[in-house]
Amino acid sequence: MNSIGEAELRELIVALSGRVAAARDLLNRLDAALGDGDHGTSVSVAFAVAVEDIRTLDEPSLSAIWLTTAKALMNRMGGASGAIFGTFFLRGVTLLHDRDRLGKAEMQALLQAGLDGVKARGKAKLGDKTMVDALEPAVVAFAEADDYDSAWRSAAAAARAGTEATKGLVARQGRARFLGQRAVGHIDPGAMTAALMFEAIDDYWRANCR
Ligand code: ADP
Ligand code: MG
Hints:
This protein is an all-alpha fold. It contains 10 helices and no strands. The chain has helices at residues 6-22, 24-34, 39-55, 62-77, 79-90, 93-96, 104-122, 132-144, 148-165, 189-208. It is globular and about 50 Å long. The structure holds adenosine-5'-diphosphate and magnesium ion. Adenosine-5'-diphosphate (ADP) binds at residues 31, 35-36, 38-39, 42, 77, 79-81, 84, 118, 122-124, 130-132, 173-175, 188-191. Magnesium ion (MG) binds next to loops.
């Protein structure tokens, strides 16, 4: 398969939701070391709401699926990170209007819009120890690949590598910035969530779309 339609996009959100729910305790533990310990719970509740709201959409177009996900993250995650994660989805919604399938180039534009939105909203740059450290290398790797198959694979690997690298960093955004050097040695939970998202998509793609 070389494009993603409504059914696949809906199933992708289900896959993301399942992956973050399975990692809820891990994400809470990572956030307990650097913040307030709620990240796993917030993100898994928000994605579960997204899945349910998508299931009950009257017209589950690509843009409605993306907008519903954005709203669930913004309304149910709370805090700064809900708004920032929600922005990732919200920024892409207009690119999906009047589309019924997404080829690799359209998906690339969607991911790039999301990353640009996250950076504009949260002001984090690469190396600030946030989700951007996973998202940005993933989007770059996706863009450099020739087809969907290799794009998801290398995006997931790049997101994971970026996430692991947050361990060595001092935080310059979010609650963790108050820890100074004490943040070093801990992986950023938001970056981990982004890595899990790309890994879930890659696994879904491999199992269902090749
Ligand atoms: P809160 O800090 O409000 O409790 P969460 O625990 O859900 O929110 O999320 C924390 C994550 O949010 C961090 O691990 C980091 O990846 C991300 N984050 C925080 N501030 C920013 C920012 N300015 N830009 C991008 N991501 C951010
Ligand atoms: Mg938190």
